[in-house]
Amino acid sequence: MASTSKPSSPSPVNLDPPSSPVAEEDTKVNSPGKFLPVLKWRDSEFVNLMTNIQIPTAYGARFPQEGDTVGDALVGHICMFVDWFDICNLHLPLTVFMVELLEYYNILISHLSPLGMVRARHLEYTFRAKNVVPLVEDFRHFYQMTEILGFYSFSLRYSAPKLMTAPKGLTKWKAKFFYVKAVAVTDRLHFRNVTDNIATEQLNTPEHGKQAWLLHLHLIPTKNWRTGSCRFCG
């Protein structure tokens, strides 16, 4: 379970070409989200987003072409959804926790829905606020991975303590995206087919008496940089 040492630090990024081919996003048979909306946001909004989140130029962030979908990323590039940054407070480089979470479930970050991302980021923020290092094992005690319409998310386990109230109205996120070099995230992830079975994990929820931090979960004001509104609560 969780320890009380330093929080996860950003994962080191190797911007050299990966030793093995990076999975290419595609909309062909069995690819996640095979029926996808085309790009629907402006390049001026992209420029404003880059100014605010300050992604390193070495990551090669670029605005998609007109008519692109999230499945049109070039080989060696992946899709990043705008709602991850607006709503989930995602930052690059990813923290160690986020990299380890993606590696454990063997999914590309571009196949994770904003609802899945916000639950992962909220748990990490909650643990950090308590000076507890977030671990994948802890996350698994609260959440079960699910697949919805070709994208992965996480659902609260039955009887697990509710850590947050998920944001509502996330309906147009698939049409607001941009591309970055895949190795800017990690080069150790591989394509997971949505037809692959997702094992139902039977894990006990943390025991209040043994996990002191669980007794002190409370509202954690994490703000959306566009609106200033509180997004996370626990």
Stretches where pLDDT is under 50 for at least 5 consecutive residues are 2-9, 11-33, 219-234
How many beta strands in the DSSP annotation?
4
What can be said about the biggest beta sheet? Answer: 2 strands, antiparallel
| Basic shape | globular
In angstroms, what is the radius of gyration? 17 Å
DSSP summary: helix tally = 5
Q: Strand order across the biggest sheet?
A: 1-4
Distance between the termini: 19 Å
Element pattern in H and E: HEHHHHEEE
Strand content: 5-15%
* Average residue-wise pLDDT: 74
How would you describe what is shown here?
21% of the residues lie in helices and 9% in strands. With 234 residues, it is an alpha+beta fold. The chain contains five helices and four strands, in the order H-E-H-H-H-H-E-E-E. A two-stranded antiparallel sheet has the order 1-4. It is globular and about 45 Å long. The N terminus and C terminus are likely disordered.
Give the topology, please:
Elements: H1 43-53, E1 77-81, H2 82-86, H3 96-105, H4 114-129, H5 136-142, E2 143-148, E3 151-156, E4 177-181
Antiparallel strand pairs: 1-4, 2-3
Key attributes of the depicted protein:
4 strands, two-stranded antiparallel ribbon, alpha+beta, disordered C terminus
Short characterization:
The chain has five helices and four strands, in the order H-E-H-H-H-H-E-E-E. The protein has helices at residues 43-53, 82-86, 96-105, 114-129, 136-142, and strands at residues 77-81, 143-148, 151-156, 177-181.
